[in-house]
Amino acid sequence: MKKFTYLLFAMMAVLMSSCEVIGGIFKAGVWTGIIIVAIVVGLIIFLISRGSRKD
């Protein structure tokens, strides 16, 4: 019974830390996606405003 308890605690520790790692990856992915979208939208606005100028 004692071995089972140690095994259970070891499994919980591994699973909990892996969930934190996956959560960190998803957070980084969200912020990376937001930054990329902002850059693309800014580039599109820049190109449209530059193309619509009549010099």
Automatic annotation (TrEMBL):
UniProt superkingdom: Bacteria
Keywords carried by this UniProt record: Membrane, Nucleotidyltransferase, Transferase, Transmembrane, Transmembrane helix
Transmembrane portions of the chain: 29-48
GO MF entries: nucleotidyltransferase activity
Presence of the UniProt keyword Transferase in the record: yes
Keyword Transmembrane among record annotations: yes
Stated name of the protein: Phosphatidate cytidylyltransferase
